[in-house]
Write a structure and sequence with these properties.
alpha+beta; HIT family, subunit A; five-stranded antiparallel β-sheet; 5 strands
Length: 116
């Protein structure tokens, strides 16, 4: 169910434009508007879920699907040889700024560890 004030829900229904690079019946992937690397995409579920903490056992299939979409996006962006990072920030203290579950797919440059 879409949340009226959620920017990512608005992307899903087309109310806010995004550079969409993948879409299917359960997920949408688009380029981050504030990229932290040459490739920085977000993968989101079409259904609103605030964060990973809100996922339940019934969401396990969706969570696996989101990870597969992240890999598909990374490979389509040419990151299979150089590698890429997938990140899920959960909560404001971890850097989550939009409270709609999303996976960051980041690559195209060397990525340091720890991340920050």
């Amino acid at each position: 169910m879409a949340e009226q004030n959620c920017i990512f829900c608005q992307v899903v229904v087309g109310e806010i434009a995004a550079d969409v690079i993948y879409t299917d019946e359960r997920a949408v992937a688009f380029r981050d508007i504030n990229p932290q690397a040459p490739v920085h995409a977000l993968v989101i579920p079409r259904e609103h879920m605030d964060s990973l903490d809100d996922a339940s056992g019934r969401d396990e299939g969706l969570l696996g699907h989101l990870l597969r979409v992240a890999a598909r996006v990374a490979n389509a962006e040419g990151l299979s040889e150089s590698g890429y990072r997938t990140v899920i920030n959960t909560g404001a203290g971890a850097g989550q700024s939009v409270f709609h579950l999303h996976l960051h797919v980041i690559g195209g440059r060397p990525l340091n560890w720890p991340p920050g």
